[in-house]
Specification:
Blueprint lengths: L20 E6 L2 E6 L10 H15 L6 E6 L4 E3 L4 H10 L3 H18 L5 E5 L2 E3 L1 H4 L6 E4 L4 E3 L13 H4 L7 H8 L3 E2 H7 L4 E2 L5 H7 L5 H8 L12 H7 L5 H10 L3 H8 L3 H14 L4 H17 L2 H11 L17 H7 L3
Parallel strand pairs: 2-3, 3-5, 4-6, 5-7, 6-8, 7-10
Antiparallel strand pairs: 1-2, 8-9
Helix pairs in contact: 1-3, 2-15, 3-14, 11-12, 13-14
């Protein structure tokens, strides 16, 4: 790949007709820009394909020492996948395009985890769902004071995927379970404390970072520009979270939360899809003993069941399409979710 930009100016926001992914080499570094800022750089199937192709092309290119992935605009790296496209695929089509999307997305995420060169993810602003997939598996994960990272999928009748059922069981205590069942976002400082990111750089220094890594190894640049991570407010709450979120039954977790004076957290969990909540907890427990590839396989199996059953389609309808914010979950309560239903979704 030559020195010249491939598609568009990597520093600009996408205009009408501009590419949604810009891949270019500057100096010794390959840069991938997610260039869909009006949609918070949400991933489409084409964007995933373009990212994957660029990474493959640079893997054996001796002129490229490292790769940097970042997002256009100041609102975030990536707010996840294009779930409206999933909704349309299942309401107007047969769902095959969505299954291809998820398979391609997980393949890309797995490739980032195995990438043979430093893979630097600039996790500035919102990093949600699919945004976590293309960043948290990387070898160098940079956050800022603006970072908001989360896996909100149970709120749309889905599950924390993109390898989250591998990542979240490996954070301290039950903090990953808390993140998965509540969908709450965490800060950059939290992400470092939880092992989901590596280093904090002030957002005001990102431009300097991007310029410096054109010619310098990223480790040298970060040694110069990094800041001390602030204290993690989430980590400070680990004691009660560990106690409340232990075990394999969401109903018991909710009960312990109410008994412990955390009714607001219990309310949050009960507002999510009950079926997704059960499935998510089981996948987290299984993920603790799985490889990343095994976690991806389990997520795909369960995720497609949730979509085809209509649970995720209803969640997208309520949250994004009709925006009435009142999804009609089936069943509507945690008490009514059967183990047989959970086993079916998990392919048992």
């Amino acid at each position: 790949m030559d020195q010249n930009r491939q598609d568009a100016n990597a520093g600009s926001a996408a205009q009408e007709g501009e590419p949604t992914v810009v891949a270019e080499r500057r100096g010794r570094t390959g840069f991938i820009l997610l260039n869909r800022p009006k949609a918070l750089n949400a991933l489409s199937g084409d964007m995933i394909a373009r990212m994957h192709a660029a990474l493959i092309g640079w893997a054996d290119d001796d002129s490229v020492d490292q790769v940097v992935v970042h997002g256009a605009g100041e609102r975030g790296l990536c707010a996840g996948g294009d779930i409206v496209a999933v909704y349309k695929d299942f309401t107007d089509g047969d769902g095959s395009a969505s299954e291809h999307f998820f398979r391609s997305e997980y393949s890309l995420d797995n490739y980032t985890a195995e990438y043979p060169k430093p893979y630097v993810a600039v996790m500035d602003g919102l990093v949600l769902g699919g945004g976590v997939g293309i960043s948290a598996h990387g070898s160098v994960r940079v956050v800022t004071e603006r970072t908001k990272l989360g896996m909100p999928e149970t709120g749309i009748g889905f599950l924390p995927d993109v390898g989250a059922t591998y990542l979240l069981p490996r954070v301290p205590g039950e903090l990953g379970t808390y993140m998965a069942l509540t969908g709450e976002m965490v800060t950059g400082a939290d992400a470092v404390a939880l092992g989901l990111a590596d280093v904090v750089v002030e957002s005001a220094k990102l431009e300097e970072l991007m310029k410096a890594v054109e010619e310098e190894p990223v480790a040298d640049v970060l040694a110069r520009l990094k800041s001390e991570a602030p204290k993690s407010e989430l980590l400070a709450q680990r004691e009660w979270i560990d106690e409340a979120f232990a075990g394999n039954d969401p109903r018991q977790i909710v009960a312990r939360l109410r008994e412990g004076g955390h009714g607001d957290v219990a309310d949050t969990i009960e507002s999510k899809s009950p079926t997704s909540t059960f499935v998510t907890l089981e996948l987290l427990r299984e993920g603790a003993g799985q490889t990343l590839r095994e976690a991806f396989d389990a997520e795909l199996e369960a995720g497609m069941h949730l979509i085809r059953s209509g649970e995720m389609i209803e969640g997208i309808r309520a949250q994004v399409v009709d925006k009435d914010k009142y999804p009609k979950w089936n069943p509507g309560r945690l008490e009514d979710v059967s183990q047989e239903r959970v086993d079916e979704i998990l392919g048992r």
